[in-house]
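Kindly review this protein for my students:
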Amino acid sequence: MTRAIFFDLDGTLLDSRKKIPDSAYKALMECREHGISLCVATARPPILEKMLGWNSKEQGLFLGGVYCNGACEKIGESLSYHFISRSVVERVIGEVRQYNGLNIALQMKEEKHAFRYPLAEQAWEPWGIDPEDVLPLEEADWGETVKMLVFYENLIDSVTLLPKRLIEDIEKTCGHQAKIYHTDQGKLLQIGNCRVSKYGGIQAVCKEMGWEAEEIVVFGDDYNDEEMLRGFPRSVAMGNAPQAIKDVAGHVTKSNEEDGIAYAIRAWILSDRW
């Protein structure tokens, strides 16, 4: 019996327009009608109403879940954070400063942000933050950093691959003290606390809610989903996922542009065909 489902967002539950397709929304409502709790398992911070424009319709679907790749867990209004070591933040910023035009974002407690370079005007809304709420990098409390992002342009419109040397240097100097994911087809580096992951965050939520691993299903599509897809016995990779991610999942559904969520829910979850 399925008691809860955890969804990655970008590339999984969301389509290319960053919307929940109608087919997926209807399938999620069917899950709710069957008493199945819905949660997110995303790299995004818990400000989806700002980042994605979610209103009560979308927000009301979800109990809470795992944010910032597991560095933040939310159940209802309760939030808990896991911070990155200040020494790691200092080293990563030092590496990034060796590259002109390369940006870094610090996502901090209470969803505060700091950037090396300000975002372009059109990028603030998709990031879900207001310019006046952003701290200069030098004035931010680096000890309250939940996640770091390294990218070119504004991330939402990035077309520039990260330098291979940069990734190698950060992995060499920080890999033993941080969790590092190279995602978005090579255009984004995500860095978090070495002890957190979506897998670990979901375990913490399940413990709080009294759910067993065999009673949940997880959906994902990228390398930061690998641990949860590999770790839980009932896992689904999207058809648009890299082959290495498909290989570790229990099932592979259609892509996020081909009603993959709705297909999987009706084929395997509501019919209980595992």
